[in-house]
Specification:
This protein has a single domain, classed as 4-Layer Sandwich (Metallo-beta-lactamase, Chain A). Helix content is 21%, strand content 27%. It contains six helices and 14 strands. The longest helix is centred in the last third of the chain and has 10 residues. Bound molecules: nickel (II) ion and manganese (II) ion.
Length: 227
């Protein structure tokens, strides 16, 4: 699977030939000033919750590409009201088969107010199952015992976990989360974007490797291939 990082918690993952874009926050992220939002491809835009640092560029990209926004009912309806044509509302516990594979919405422990103050419902994470790969995109979340259910439910080859602390779990809890979901390969997200969430990269990688796991910290704009 081809993965491109656009900073903060924003990635595209190419699954079965479709571009899945997660939590686009680019134009407001000074670290991502080298990324051209107008060039990002998307067939689906998955939004974990309503916070601005996860939805900021979703409307513009959806309008340009015609991508389908997949999000909580409240977040999806917020974009519908803005005139986004293609949207698919979901909620925690549900799954839905799309043309690239299955999306299952799982619990995230966080909050989810939209930029104008309206409710984004509950925050969530996504479990993506396809014949290419199964992976977990955690969104913004604390470490939660519910993550064990994800590990029980499916073999996860790759997990996108927040590691920046302060607003989400930090490194130590992310190592435990990786254990709960029984996944040895983690791509870190939600770190370094602002002072509160700056991390020591070397120390973070060491903590994962001491637990027998790999932490991948992608460069903004970088594309990697993982199977
Ligand atoms: Ni958030
Ligand atoms: Mn956030």
């Amino acid at each position: 699977m081809k993965i491109t990082y656009y900073g903060h918690s924003c990635f595209t993952a190419e699954v079965m030939g479709k571009h899945l874009l997660f939590d686009p926050f680019i134009s407001g992220n000074p670290l991502a000033s080298g990324v051209d939002v107008m060039k990002i491809q998307a067939d689906y835009i998955l939004l974990s919750h309503g916070h601005n640092d996860h939805v900021a560029d979703a409307e513009a990209i959806a309008r340009r590409t015609g991508a389908t926004i997949v999000a909580s009912f409240e977040v999806a309806m917020w974009f519908k009201k803005k005139g986004v044509e293609n949207y698919h509302p979901m909620n925690i516990g549900g799954h839905r088969l799309f043309d690239f594979g299955k999306v299952k919405c799982v619990a995230a422990v966080h909050s989810s107010t939209l930029p104008d103050g309206s409710s984004g419902g509950n925050p969530m994470g996504f479990l993506i199952e396809s014949s290419d790969i199964n992976f977990y995109y955690a969104g913004d979340t604390a470490l939660t015992y519910d993550m064990k259910l994800i590990g029980d439910y499916k073999n996860i080859a790759l997990a996108f976990l927040p590691i920046g602390n302060n607003f989400t779990m930090g490194i130590d809890n992310a190592v435990i989360a990786a254990d709960f979901i029984r996944c040895d390969r983690v791509i870190g997200m939600h770190y370094d974007t602002e002072d509160f969430i700056k991390i020591d990269h070397k120390e973070a990688k060491q903590k994962f490797s001491h637990a027998g796991k790999e932490l991948i910290l992608m460069k903004i704009g970088e594309t990697i291939n993982l199977n």
